[in-house]
Amino acid sequence: MAQANWRLEGEWLKNCTCAYGCPCDFNAKPTQGYCKGFIGMRITKGHFDSTTLDGLCFFAVVSFPGPLHEGNGQLQPIIEERATAEQREALFNIMSGKNSAEGTLFQICSLIVTKMHDPIFAPITFQFDKSARTARLVIPGVLETEVEPIKNPVTGAPHRVQIVCPEGFENLEGEVASSNIRSTGAIKFETQGGHSTLAHVVQTPEGVAA
Fold first, then answer.
1. Other C-beta atoms lying within 10 Å of the C-beta of residue 152
2. Is residue 167 part of a domain?
3. How many domains would you assign to the chain?
4. Looking at the domain assignment, is residue 30 inside a domain?
5. Contacts (Cβ under 8 Å, ≥6 apart) of 69
6. 3-class secondary structure for 162-174?
7. Tell me: the pLDDT tens digits for 110-123?
8. I want to staple 18 with a disulfide (CB 3.0 to 4.6 A). Which of 31, 38, 53, 158 is the partner?
9. Per the domain annotation, does 1 fall within a domain?
10. Closest CA to 201 of 73, 18, 46
11. Nearest by Cα to 208 from 163, 175, 162, 172
């Protein structure tokens, strides 16, 4: 069970190399057999015990050689450089999974990641519009991504798809979009037209809250 009182509410973004819809969300094999991407959020309101985390961004770039449940993953955490030492420690405590119940996002990540790269502290520019299905993330020298609506291949008109997962450990409902990613940190890759999920989330030690 949880060892600390924490809560993260905010704008969640997951982009990866899989096709639209991300088979990993359906317990299926990644589109290309492997999965590379990132997850993270801007915390609109959050805390770890008495440490306030409002307004901070954090992301994690990941790489898995096969289906996520088979493990052997790599992860590099990225935290906004303006975070204080206390806030950085708070976020590391949350991301470690040690302060989360079994079967929750951060606890699962702690089991399937076997190589942890050194964390990066950098300026983060993050633009996010869930309803428009657009986002932009720039972390200079580390990670850049752009998100736009999926386009109808015939008419070019925006195409809308939502994924609802009532028992999800990442989010409960997300907008699906198209992403371009260029990752130049410890986990290097580049992709065009991959999957993106935009969601509003509330993460707690017991999992995603409604």
1. 10
2. yes
3. 1
4. yes
5. 27, 112
6. EEECCCCCCCCEE
7. 999 999 999 999 99
8. 31
9. no
10. 46
11. 172
* pTM (predicted TM-score): 0.95
Token pair belonging to 41: 């959020």
C-alpha pair distances (Å), 6 with each of 100, 118, 142: 9, 24, 28
Q: Do residues 41 and 171 make contact, with C-beta atoms less than 8 angstroms apart? A: no
Pair 53, 91: CB distance under 8 Å = yes
83-103: pLDDT as tens digits: 999 999 999 999 999 999 999
d(CA 33, CA 119): 27
Q: In this structure, what token pair is assigned to residue 207?
A: 């999992």
Quote the domain boundaries for residue 119: 6-208
The token pair at 186 is 């410890």
